[in-house]
Design brief:
about 150 residues, alpha+beta, Aminopeptidase, five-stranded mixed β-sheet, 4 helices, about 25% strand, Acetyltransferase (GNAT) family protein
Length: about 150
Amino acid sequence: MMCETPLVRVARSDEGSVVARLIAALLSELDGAPVDPVAVGKSAETVLALPSVTAFLAFVGDEAVGVLVLNECAAIYAGGVFGEISELYVAPEWRSAGVARLLVQVAQGFGQERGWKRLEVGAPPQPGWSRTLAFYRREGFEEVGPRLRRVL
């Protein structure tokens, strides 16, 4: 790992393949199996075209080393509009170097500029991903319970 400070910026419309590559690595790591990069690329293209979705990339030099995908959501319990981090990934060689923290800080600033009252995130299953949960707690997130899903 180098000592260079990452630069975080909004992903450009022509960087969908960069976002998809990082998300494919995240999904492969979470699932423990390779994922179809073509399917991830198509999904990234569709999702990143939505006006409610913003992706941030962390670069060191010309290399993208991290990604955070942020969704604008709304709920009565949240007092209106809020942000949800749907994906956050940092390349293994850049973990514990402040990249994820920087991505979260940029997302917080983005939300504050829009008047959001909160950011939410779903942590991966515990206890296998306890470092991820510990990271979010250090960043000021509170654990409010499990997230459930039903595939349609």
